[in-house]
Amino acid sequence: MAVADFGRLTAITRSNILPNVSDAIVKDSPALNRFLNKAKREDGGTTLNKIVRFKNSTQGGGYAGLEVLPAALQTTRTQAQFDWKQVFEPIAVSNIEVAKNGGIQKVEDLVALDMEDAKLSLEEKFGGYIFSDGSGDSSKVPDGLINVADDGTNDNVYGGINRTNNTWWKGSYVDGVGAFAVSLLSTRLDDIEQFGKAVDLHITTLAMWTAYEQTLHPQARFEFSSNGFPKADGGFDKLTYRGAEVLKDPRCTAGFWYMLNMNTIDYYYLNHPTFKTDNRGFTLWPLHEPTSQDGRIGFLLWYGQFITTNPRHNGVIRGLT
């Protein structure tokens, strides 16, 4: 078969190759895995708008008999507004490569390789976005954990709300702390958890993960095998602090330790209006023939944003050594 059936190829790519690419993107990035696997779909809107609660009502309380009960309107909520962001990765197939390969199976293999390249590129991009501040590509990329955990030092107007004037919209932030110590973690956690929600995930670098691991060595306990002999291991494969997992990610910024409440942080995505979108927000614009190039061009696309609706339940320690 000298000419490829691109209709069939597109169907195979969408049904078989794209899901594998999407799965691989999250599997190879521990932090991204946690967030994209719980991504939420929005039905539309020119911006991503979320109602946020910033204080409790001062009304209500005890009363006696037929006492008149006050019920004046009181503002306890406001709206945060985030811009949608778009991400793309191109897939290009040269017609001369199709002609040289011949046969639909060989062309499928060729496209699979191109999709693998796209996967690796998207993995690198999204793995970086999660630890960024959304300023890349002229602020066209999604926000990241820097925005989520900031106190206004680096991102003062977040979701359209000024952090200087609204201290309830600040994350728990400290920078330039120096040498790692467990006391730094406890101080920051106490600051976050005074507002009533516990941190359930820590994310840091391999170096900081190892530094924390070394503080636990004196507390190590042996496990015993069925024959009664102790099983010894020189380290730990999983760490927790105050019951929350400590996750190491190779893309985490050097010297950073994030403390997060996962119930307050989400990736939101929009469905593509034409092409099927998966449950993480990725879609495939099928291979098509451009007017001035001898080949076929397709795109992996994503519409979405990464946000928190409650920054004060999240925090970061920066400048750890």
Describe the structure.
By secondary structure, the chain is α+β, with helices and mostly antiparallel strands. 29% of the residues lie in helices and 26% in strands. Helix 1 runs parallel beside helix 4. The mean pLDDT is 84.
Number of helices: 8
Beta percentage is 25-35%
Question: Approximately how much helix is present in the residues?
Answer: 25-40%
Query: Poorly predicted ranges (pLDDT <50, ≥5 residues)?
Result: none
Strand order of the largest sheet: 7-17-13-8-12-11
Order of helices and strands: HHEEEEHHHHEEEHEHEEEEEEEEE
Q: How many strands? A: 17
Largest sheet: 6 strands, mixed
Oligomeric state as shown: single chain
| Amino- and carboxy-terminal Cα gap | 61 Å
